[in-house]
């Protein structure tokens, strides 16, 4: 390469600018714009509310630590409303991508993840998601990461618990008839096959169902000893549990997916939830120092208990892992960040150990808890080694 | 395979749900008969009073981000909610219908859709996204009679719906107000010529219709939990019920509601729960194919 007068002048100009305005030229102190796209309005607005709180909590945690992300650069949240509709979610994502963001955190709804996947594949930005449908990480997106245990892990954990621990072999499945519920029910059936068992009943219910009598009675009539329920919406969980109790079905064990044990669901169900088992990404009082610190600080800020699994907890972990990855590689370059995230090993989050597998799954453990007085106590932890 | 005890259970729970559909369907019919439009905000008249009620009755509720502790007695809360919703019915009439009354049916229908969207968003703004539990008059206990299990609230729903249906029959058949409402529904111009103050009667019909939604909301909130979506599916089924019964027919709305409530439960159990909601609409299509005017509706020629 020949050194010309133009090259020397350009170098000198850059050097002078660096000395005069170091923060601007090197990006020091410049905010890192991370997009987040929760469902702020519509039927899933509760999830959205929790996820916004998780994102704001995470940004505060990152921005208050020395050096912030790296080079004193804080996280700046860019929030768009995914609503509860797939088409609107894709529209909101396109808007978000036009706002100069370097990564996207959310959604938690698998159906929205699958709808957004083609756009995000093209964008190539690191994409931290919370949807648990197994298919999400099998869509062929190297930039997609799942920050919660997949339904495969949860369903196997639930089935192992019912069959091995409790000796219940006649399993009825109750599930929401959307991507999450159907995916979860499929995984329960797959897990049952490992014990040469078949579900005695599989009952799906449409969104906003208010009377679950036919579903519950059908499962009872099939002779089920346990109901494994994949339910997304906390108010659905509360209504199901109320009817499960009022129909006097409590002799059939009830084992629910993480959303059934969501604090909102349990506070709404009240005593109807007593005695049920739930899969949990996290159980208060039984996890790491990171989790204990999160719970304490979150309570101080919002005066309520966070939903660590489906709401604030995983969102906080997604942002913190991104920030730590930026710090590790010293850049926010999307391609380099994606590769660095794939190298994640034993990073400690609120949900436990984060280690990336070939599909982009980061969390490989879940717990089973017993509910009493709207509180969950640990019964068993299930870990899957990668 | 026929299961008698499950069938009985499904019928009881189907009748309770069907009574709610019937009350909401009556609200649809009354406004349709009075002004010739479908009120798409009828489901939100189930939701909104339920939120108002929980704000008054619970020990603490977050309203506009502030915790309130009104905790009024349940019966006082019911009365207060009904008074407030009656005022709201009048407001709804004056804002969403009255200014548009001479511009055809479409602007009024769009206006009701606007009210529906407004109420849902207002509910989220005021009360947030958390589902809220409304206490039942009878607590959480359930009752049993042999293999039949039910909540006391289900009996209350059936009882109140029954009383309201009888009350409505009496109102329309034996009172001057009811006769004026019927006359206005049948022919507004002639009613006006006969000295009936049509605008006032229409406003009363709106208030009554909103109150029917409010009563349905107060009845179902203890078993549904209060969410801003709670009225959505109910109003859709109620709409189907009113068409099955014959749009415009009061007995038709009642029978249609009960029929849909029971058949969707039995269909869910004996056919498929995944298609339980579809069953209501299959009934709707079947009735429209066999008898387009609905079970109790007048034939078009008779109406003309």
Main features:
heterodimer, A: 386 residues, alpha/beta, Rossmann fold, seven-stranded mixed beta sheet, five-stranded parallel beta sheet, 43% helix, elongated, B: 304 residues, mainly alpha, ABC transporter involved in vitamin B12 uptake, BtuC, two-stranded antiparallel ribbon, globular
Model description:
The complex is a heterodimer of chains A (386) and B (304). Chain A has 386 residues and is α/β, with parallel strands linked by helices. In chain A, 43% of the residues lie in helices and 17% in strands. Chain A folds into two domains: 26-149 and 286-354, 3-Layer(aba) Sandwich (Rossmann fold); 152-280 and 368-383, Rossmann fold, CATH 3.40.50.2300. In chain A, strands 7-6-8-9-10-13-14 form a seven-stranded mixed β-sheet, sandwiched between helices. Residues 21-26 of chain A have low confidence and may be disordered. Chain B has one domain: ABC transporter involved in vitamin B12 uptake, BtuC (Orthogonal Bundle). Helix content of chain B is 71%, strand content 4%. Chain B has helices at residues 4-35, 44-57, 74-97, 105-127, 152-174, 176-186, 188-193, 198-224, 230-245, 250-270, 276-290, 300-303, and strands at residues 61-63, 66-68, 143-145, 148-150. In chain B, a hairpin with a 2-residue loop joins strand 1 (61-63) and strand 2 (66-68). In chain B, helix 9 packs across helix 10. Classes of the chains: A alpha/beta (386), B mainly alpha (304).
Sequence stretches where pLDDT stays below 50 over 5 or more residues of chain A: 21-26
Mean pLDDT of chain B: 89
Percent in helix of chain B: over 70%
- Global outline of chain B: globular
Instruction: Please state the second-level CATH architecture of the largest domain in chain A.
Output: 3-Layer(aba) Sandwich
Q: Looking at CATH, which topology of the largest domain in chain A would you report?
A: Rossmann fold
CATH topology of chain B: ABC transporter involved in vitamin B12 uptake, BtuC
Number of domains of chain B: 1
Q: What is the SS-derived class of chain A?
A: alpha/beta
Gyration radius of chain B, rounded: 20 Å
Q: Sheet with the most strands of chain B?
A: 2 strands, antiparallel
From the spread of the alpha carbons, the general shape of chain A counts as elongated
Number of strands of chain A: 14
Rg over alpha carbons of chain A: 23 Å
Please name the fourth-level CATH homologous superfamily of the largest domain in chain A: Response regulator
Q: Please trace the helix and strand order of chain A, writing H or E for each element.
A: HHEHEHEHEEHEHEHEHEHEHHHEEEE
């Amino acid at each position: 390469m020949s050194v010309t007068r133009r090259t020397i002048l350009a170098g000198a100009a850059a050097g002078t600018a660096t000395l005069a305005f170091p923060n601007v030229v090197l990006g020091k102190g410049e905010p890192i714009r991370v997009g987040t796209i929760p469902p702020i309005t519509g039927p899933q607005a509760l999830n959205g509310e929790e996820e916004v709180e998780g994102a704001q909590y995470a940004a505060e945690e990152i921005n208050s630590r020395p050096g912030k992300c790296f080079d004193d650069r804080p996280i700046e949240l860019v929030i768009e409303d995914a609503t509860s509709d797939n088409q609107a979610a894709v529209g909101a994502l396109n808007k978000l991508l036009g706002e100069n963001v370097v990564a996207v955190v959310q959604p938690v709804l698998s159906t929205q993840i699958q709808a957004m996947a083609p756009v995000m594949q093209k964008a190539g930005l690191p994409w931290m998601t919370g949807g648990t449908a197994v298919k999400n990480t099998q869509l062929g997106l190297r930039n997609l990461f799942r920050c919660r245990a997949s339904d495969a892990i949860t369903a196997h954990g639930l089935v192992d618990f019912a069959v091995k621990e409790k000796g219940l072999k006649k399993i009825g499945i109750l599930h929401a008839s959307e991507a999450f519920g159907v995916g979860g029910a499929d995984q329960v059936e797959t897990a049952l096959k490992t014990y040469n068992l078949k579900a005695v009943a599989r009952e799906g219910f449409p969104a906003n169902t208010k009377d679950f009598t036919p579903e519950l009675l059908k499962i009872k009539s099939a002779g089920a000893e346990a109901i494994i329920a994949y339910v997304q919406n906390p108010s659905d969980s509360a209504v199901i549990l109320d009817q499960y109790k009022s129909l006097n079905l409590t002799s059939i064990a009830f084992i629910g997916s993480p959303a059934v044990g969501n604090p909102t669901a349990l506070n709404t169900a009240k005593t109807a939830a007593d005695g049920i088992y739930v899969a949990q990404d996290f159980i208060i009082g039984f996890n790491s120092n990171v989790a204990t610190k999160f719970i304490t600080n979150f309570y101080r800020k919002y005066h309520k208990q966070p939903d660590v699994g489906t709401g604030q907890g995983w969102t906080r972990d997604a942002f913190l892992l991104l920030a730590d990855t930026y710090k590790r590689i010293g850049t926010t370059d999307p391609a380099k960040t994606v590769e660095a995230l794939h190298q994640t090993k034993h990073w400690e989050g609120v949900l436990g150990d984060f280690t990336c597998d070939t599909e982009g799954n980061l969390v490989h453990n879940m717990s089973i808890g017993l509910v009493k007085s709207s509180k969950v106590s640990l019964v068993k932890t299930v870990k899957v080694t990668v | 395979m026929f299961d008698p005890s499950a069938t009985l259970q499904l019928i009881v729970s189907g009748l309770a749900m069907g009574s709610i559909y019937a009350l909401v369907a009556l609200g649809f019919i009354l406004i349709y008969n009075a002004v010739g439009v479908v009120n798409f905000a009828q489901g939100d008249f189930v939701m909104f009073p339920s939120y108002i009620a929980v704000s008054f009755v619970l020990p603490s509720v977050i309203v506009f981000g502030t915790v309130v502790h009104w905790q009024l007695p349940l019966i006082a809360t019911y009365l207060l909610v009904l008074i407030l919703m009656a005022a709201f019915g009048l407001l709804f009439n004056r804002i969403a219908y009255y200014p548009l009354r001479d511009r055809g049916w479409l602007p009024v229908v769009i206006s009701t859709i606007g009210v529906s969207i407004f109420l849902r968003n207002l509910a989220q703004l005021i009360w947030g996204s958390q589902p809220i539990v409304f206490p039942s008059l009878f607590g959480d206990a359930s009752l049993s009679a042999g293999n039949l299990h039910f909540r006391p609230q289900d009996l209350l729903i059936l009882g109140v719906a029954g009383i309201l249906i009888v009350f409505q029959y009496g109102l329309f058949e034996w009172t001057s107000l009811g006769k004026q409402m019927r006359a206005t529904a049948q022919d507004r111009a002639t009613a006006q010529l006969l000295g009936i103050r049509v605008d006032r009667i229409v406003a009363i019909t709106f208030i009554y219709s909103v109150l029917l939604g409010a009563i349905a909301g107060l009845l179902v909130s203890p078993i549904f939990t209060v969410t801003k979506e709670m009225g959505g599916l109910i109003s859709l089924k109620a709409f189907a019920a009113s068409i099955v019964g014959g749009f415009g027919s009061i007995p038709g709305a009642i029978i249609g509601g009960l029929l849909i409530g029971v058949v969707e439960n039995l269909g869910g159990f004996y056919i498929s729960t995944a298609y339980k909601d579809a069953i209501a609409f299959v009934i709707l299509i079947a009735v429209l194919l066999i008898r387009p005017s609905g079970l109790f509706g007048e034939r078009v020629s008779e109406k003309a």
